[in-house]
């Protein structure tokens, strides 16, 4: 089993392509446009092999209807649904000052006014391919 560190910036699927005397893994443009990665920076990269069409992870996640649905490229769908209510933990702040929480597979949930260490219950309002936007519905468990 592979252990995935908490410092994981992003997680995406890509093919290893041959390019003359080297191999290339292309970074999807959305990873840069959403701030997960920055051009010119150096990153530590880990590659996980595909097992039966699913990416190997350190701990199996509970099966969800959306986990088994893939796009035509074989990329898993977001692990959250619009209208879903769940508890998250704010890990950091984004460039705009919003809280950033990560859920299954490193998927990012943006929570307005969240502070690192807060654990609010949120409702997922908008779901995109690699990020969701949520609103706080219950602040129990948030730090004072």
Automatic annotation (TrEMBL):
It comes from the Archaea. Residues 79-138 form the TRAM domain. InterPro entries: NA-bd_OB-fold (IPR012340), TRAM_dom (IPR002792). Residues 50-85 are annotated as: Disordered. This is TRAM domain-containing protein. It comes from Haloarcula salina.
């Amino acid at each position: 089993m592979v252990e995935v560190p908490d410092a994981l910036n992003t997680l995406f699927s890509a093919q290893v392509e041959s390019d003359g005397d080297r191999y290339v893994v292309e970074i999807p443009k959305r990873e840069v446009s959403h701030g997960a990665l920055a051009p010119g920076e150096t990153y530590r990269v880990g590659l996980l092999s595909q097992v039966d069409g699913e990416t190997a992870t350190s701990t199996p996640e509970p099966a969800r209807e959306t986990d088994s649905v893939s796009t035509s490229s074989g990329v898993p769908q977001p692990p959250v649904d619009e209208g879903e209510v769940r508890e998250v933990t704010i890990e950091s702040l984004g460039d705009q000052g919003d809280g950033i929480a990560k859920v299954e597979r490193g998927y990012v949930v943006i929570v307005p006014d969240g502070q690192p260490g807060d654990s609010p219950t949120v409702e997922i309002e908008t779901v995109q391919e690699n990020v969701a936007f949520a609103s706080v519905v219950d602040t129990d468990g948030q730090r004072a």
